[in-house]
Amino acid sequence: MDFNNSIPIYMQIINELKKDIITGKLSPGEKLPSTRELAIKYSINPNTSGRIYKEMEREEITFTKRGLGTFVTESESKIEQIRNDMAKDLINDFVKGMTELGYTNEMLISIIKKESEEK
Amino acid sequence: MDFNNSIPIYMQIINELKKDIITGKLSPGEKLPSTRELAIKYSINPNTSGRIYKEMEREEITFTKRGLGTFVTESESKIEQIRNDMAKDLINDFVKGMTELGYTNEMLISIIKKESEEK
Amino acid sequence: MDFNNSIPIYMQIINELKKDIITGKLSPGEKLPSTRELAIKYSINPNTSGRIYKEMEREEITFTKRGLGTFVTESESKIEQIRNDMAKDLINDFVKGMTELGYTNEMLISIIKKESEEK
Amino acid sequence: MDFNNSIPIYMQIINELKKDIITGKLSPGEKLPSTRELAIKYSINPNTSGRIYKEMEREEITFTKRGLGTFVTESESKIEQIRNDMAKDLINDFVKGMTELGYTNEMLISIIKKESEEK
DNA sequence: GTGGTCTAGACCACT
DNA sequence: GTGGTCTAGACCACC
């Protein structure tokens, strides 16, 4: 994790975990590492791991079984919704930003096409 | 202008000014409002305006004539470079973010096409 | 520390800290005093300490771990580069300045030799 | 002149003029341009030219004949003294600065020798 | 009038 | 406790 960054560490890790869930690296219902394990894995303070799970639970991405740990939500539709929300944010930021810079819709399409070919 | 709380006000205004320069609303060599005027315009503290101009000068977007004021850079290539840098950041964030979410290049193209038609 | 009036205090302290880093009084990776401690040490305002650390971070002399503090860069090559940059500036100012005053290279050498013997 | 510089414009021009006097480009007793001419030559405000001559007169580098203009001092020893003062400042800044960076006297001599050979 | 610096004091999110 | 941001108000040199 990049401590030297304007994005809070807990946010950076939440995004990592969300991506792992969306791409299937973490399956629905799978147990997540304990707060202590997470703290060690990312060399962060256990308080910060706690905050990560609290926030993810608030967003209903995970749920907690007392005494057992934290688990990925079992709702596939919830996971799909997260993917859509994250995608929508990315799309909006991109289109809005480029438009403000004076790029037309045609330019956007050709830029993305070119980007795709290069990879 | 109403400010997004999570991004510092001075950053938001810098981005506004950058966009104004890129889109030609502010011409190369043009004088910017004085720190005091800017403070009134955006209802911010003059210190904050000062910080804005200092940061922009550091990025060579503007230059200062002592005792006279702050001016937009006269280098058209610098302005072009800023536009390209900002666009490249937007493109990278978008493509990288979407790819991490599992979207293919073809999907990106069709998403952008669809977005364009809606507007 | 007493401050030279014509140079901003924050600049003078930055130069002090740079020298401490270059001469090894501050080691790579070492934690710097907190902004509040620095403010007390030099009897300056905490705002001014903050500015010092922000500027040094911009120059990549230090880095910040959010919520933990400010640390000397761990890159030895960066430190070496800072030393070389500062030395190069001093050398250029000296040679350029003396040449403009009509001193020849031979005179420079003998002046420096004489200076060395006196100390 | 470089307006975008932490050194005040009037200081920059005074230094230019001092160098011209020291190197003989301006002879003892020679008439300097009028404040208006100076203002045009350097595209500065006439107030600034006035300040330049006032400051140089205070340092006894120039003198004024009412209604006739401003002239370079006729004292050769004064000119020699200015040269020595400027040189002494340059030498001190250099030796003090390099010593603080950890350079030894031997290193200074070899650096200056190397610089001389390159030119 | 212009930007630059500094103090004082406050609030904030993050670890 | 850590740095980051902001306001308020002051003073300064420079043009």
Description:
The structure is a homotetramer of 119-residue chains. In chain A, 22% of the residues are buried. In chain A, strands 1-2 form a two-stranded antiparallel sheet. By secondary structure, chain A is mostly helical. Chain A has 2 domains: 9-74, Winged helix-like DNA-binding domain superfamily/Winged helix DNA-binding domain (Arc Repressor Mutant, subunit A), CATH 1.10.10.10; 77-118. The first copy, chain A, is 61% helix and 7% strand. The first copy, chain A, has helices at 9-22, 35-41, 46-58, 76-100, 105-118; strands spanning 62-65, 69-72. In chain A, helix 1 (9-22) crosses helix 3 (46-58), helix 1 packs across helix 4 and helix 2 packs across helix 3 (46-58). Chain A is built from 5 helices and 2 strands; from the N terminus they run αααββαα. Chains in contact: A-B, A-C, B-D, C-D. Chain B binds a DNA duplex (15 and 15 nucleotides) through residues 8-10, 34-36, 44-51, 53-54, 64-70. Chains A, B, C, D: This is GntR family transcriptional regulator. Chains A, B, C, D: It comes from Vallitalea maricola.
